Amino acid sequence: AATRRASYIVHMAKTQMPARFTEHSHWYDASLRSISDSADMLYTYDTVAHGFAARLTPAEARNLARRPGVLSVLPDTTYHLH
Amino acid sequence: TTRTPEFLGLDVADELVPESSTTSDVVVGVLDTGVWPERNSFDDTGLGPIPAVWKGECVAAKDFDPAKSCNRKLIGARFFSKGYESSMGPIDESHESKSPRDADGHGTHTSTTAAGSAVSDASLLGYATGTARGMALRARIAVYKVCWTGGCFSSDILAAMDAAVNDGCHILSLSLGGGATDYYRDSVAIGAFNAMESGVLVSCSAGNAGPGAATLSNLAPWITTVGAGTIDRDFPAYVVLGNGKNYTGVSLYSGKLLSSTPIPLIYAGNATNSSNGNLCMPGTLVPEKVAGKVVLCERGINARVQKGMVVKDAGGAGMVLANTATNSEELVADAHLLPATLIGEKAGNVIKAYALSDPNPTATIIFGGTKVGVRPSPVVAAFSSRGPNAVTPEILKPDLIAPGVNILAGWTGAIGPTGLTTDSRRVEFNIISGTSMSCPHVSGLAALLKEEHPDWSPAAIKSALMTTAYVTYPGGDGILDIATGQAATPFDFGAGHADPKSAVDPGLIYDLTPEDYLEFLCAIDYTSLQIAAISKDRNYSCDARKNYSVSKLNYPSFSVAFATASGSADKGATATVVHERTVTNVGPPATYKSTATAKVDGGEVQISVEPAVLNFTETGEKKSYTVKFTAPSLPSGSSGSGRLEWSDGKHTVASALAFTWT
User: What tens digit of pLDDT does each residue of B257-276 get?
Assistant: First the structure.
């Protein structure tokens, strides 16, 4: 289970983006790379959220949550039709 | 959809917005299982050019050609599957379309309900005939496929909401939900908050986990949470027993009829080789025992239509499907593949007793087709999830109810009306039930209000729908809850049943801005990180010197939570809770007078409104008032309800009151 990847939604504090980045998506990428060189980026969010979705192991998710500028790392959850 | 426009008073010639006067630029974005674009409900006759500001698109896919599939009605179609595939593995394209195409039916049903074009002579196999049309006839539709066979994943939903708002949708309709969770953990709540901030109204289904308490989904105050009620239409199918007695059920069966003379009847529990054979699960019926007979099955576990298929496969001639206590007297109709009817729990018990006691039990089923003008209606559907609001009890949910039972609307061409793989029938329209059907009704009504009042905020539109909702039948009796047979409470139907003709001219509205919701988040003790996660990192922090309170949120309804006295010494004490509200006059100058009523078992709530009269001298004027609720200490778990109305003689602006003691 420790190595199995699942998707997570990562909410980022856009105002805390380091000055060296000009594009938020680059910052998101760099944040993801800083905790894993193989995790897949699934989506970036910019209109109804700031952040991205990625496939992570639980450990990677925990590490990412500690990164500067990361507000929350939420596991992808299943919703159902009503 | 058929019948619900008449039921909602939309069919009258003087439509809310005269057809010829405007071309609508309102776009309803539907997040669901996609779309079957060939349906006539997406015909774009009479619609003007696609709004210039629209940034959406119809994406091309193997079975989805934008040039053919999209037009001036269906102006957007996207799909989001990365989260789903990340968790469930690659989509099996032999079963699902990796495209905006709807292989399930749900998405075509909800999008056509919200804003489908008018299609005459619509029906399902001859049932529910009429002109099918969406609530917002002229609005445009954009679909965002986020739900797949294995479910709808929050990363896909958030991506779709991101795209929908960015594309330029004005209304988002989500007939889906998860469990009740903190708003900052709930991707729909997060997406909806920022959609709201962009002026987009987000309408969501309340859930089908009723009738138990606190079973709601989509509870954020910035979301319009929609429960389900019946309409005045039924599809009676009568069970006639050999002892001459008959019982009324419902069915949409169309095909070879049973003889009018009763034939042998057997209880499935006596025709099985398994412990739960009474449920008519696959492989549990003994063919020799059911061949040529009417089989009495009981609801539970597998789908109703599959039970019919099991009986048919075993050689049964018909099925009587009986509700259990869970569903009690709620009857939802199905297009069974054999003569079959669904009956209530009480009738089910009687027929079961007869089948078990009579030496030669017999029965037949007589199908009564479509009956309209059914009374009483609406009735709150048993399955409609109920309050209180498990996340923030001081915010009353659901917000309101709308038609959600036995609703006819567009359907996919990929599967039959039962969804069974063995169902080779293909229909243009299907009849299904759920808060998934009531949500797009409200989404469409919201689009109508947006057409009429383009400057109204999402909160204003929601307020107009809530404060004009009705809670009584024309004769004055309270709308019933089918689960109890008693009058429903605000925890069942929120502000009441949608009434679009009144909503377009509500008189006063309770408006709310994104800042108001941020103060609400402070009132529920959200940290700055949690607020940042919800509000796209607005650098907003709560002011420690400020006295935040949920009761200050300018919500169109009231949920007042009293604390039960703990010690015996202050048993006789009373508690007072004060709510503040500000109303905006959206009508002509007028003077409004307030009246308030409350009913609580075991006690009395005193209500004082200050000021009791509000005099508006111009449109757009805002005035504030406070309501003081004073109540004795009652046992924890006690509850009550009431109503606060402002009236100028022409407009009645009503707010539901719900009281709880904990």
Answer: 999 999 999 999 999 989 88
Task: Select from A42, A56, A71, A82 the residue whose CB has the most chain B CBs within 10 Å, as the one to mutate to test that interface.
Answer: A82
Q: Are A66 and B110 in contact (CB under 8 A)?
A: no
- The maximal CA–CA distance of chain B, rounded, in angstroms, is 80
Helix (H) or strand (E) holding B224: strand B224-229
In one-letter notation, the amino acid at residue A28 is Y
- List beta partners, residue B379: B480
C-alpha span between B321 and A55 (Å, rounded) = 45
Q: Does A81 touch chain B (CB under 8 A)?
A: yes
Cβ proximity of B617 and B575 under 8 Å: no
Query: By C-alpha distance, which of B98, B136, B180 is closest to B1?
Result: B136
Cβ neighbors of A44 (< 8 A, separation 6 or more) are A24, A25, A28, A51, A52
Summarize pLDDT for A1-60 with one digit per residue, the tens: 677 899 999 999 988 999 999 999 999 999 999 999 999 999 999 999 999 999 999 999
Chain A residues 19-78 with CB within 8 Å of chain B = 40, 42-43, 45-50, 53, 55, 71-72, 74, 76-78
Nearest by CB to residue A79, choosing from B157, B193, B198, is B157
User: Å from B446 to nearest chain A CA?
Assistant: 20
Contact A6 B86 (CB under 8 A): yes
Rg (CA), chain B: 25
| CA B284/CA B276 separation, integer angstroms | 8
- Kindly state the helix (H) or strand (E) to which residue B76 belongs, with its residue range: strand B74-79
pLDDT(B20) > 70: no
Burial (CB < 10 A; 0-12, 13-18, 19+), residue B545, is exposed
Computed over every residue of chain A, the mean pLDDT equals 94
Which residues in chain B have Cβ-Cβ distances shorter than 8 Å to A13? 532, 537
Q: Quick one: average pLDDT of B413-435?
A: 95
State how far residue B587 is from chain A, nearest Cα, in angstroms. 33
In terms of CA atoms, which chain B residue is nearest residue A6? B87
Q: Which of B185, B208, B530 sits opposite A82 (nearest CB)?
A: B208
Q: What percent of chain B has pLDDT over 90?
A: 89
B593 φ/ψ angles, rounded to the nearest 5 degrees: -115, 145
- Residue B456 buriedness (CB in 10 A; 0-12 / 13-18 / 19+): buried
Say if residue B415's pLDDT is above 50: yes
Chain A with chain B: Cβ pairs closer than 8 A:
142
Cis, bond preceding B211 (omega within 30 deg of 0): yes
Q: B644: pLDDT confidence band, cut at 50, 70 and 90? A: very high
ipTM confidence: 0.97
Q: What single DSSP character describes residue B99? A: S
Which pLDDT score, from 0 to 100, does residue B21 have?
Answer: 44
pLDDT tens track for B360-388: 999 999 999 999 999 999 999 999 999 99
Model confidence over B153-204: pLDDT tens digits?
999 999 999 999 999 999 999 999 998 899 999 999 999 999 999 999 999 9
Backbone dihedral region of B562: left (phi > 0), alpha (psi from -120 to 50 degrees) or beta? beta
Q: In this complex, do A71 and B537 lie within 8 Å of one another by their Cβ atoms?
A: yes
- Residues of B known to be catalytic: 32, 106, 436
B190: chain A residues, CB-CB within 8 Å? 11, 48-49
Strands B606-610 and B574-585: unpaired
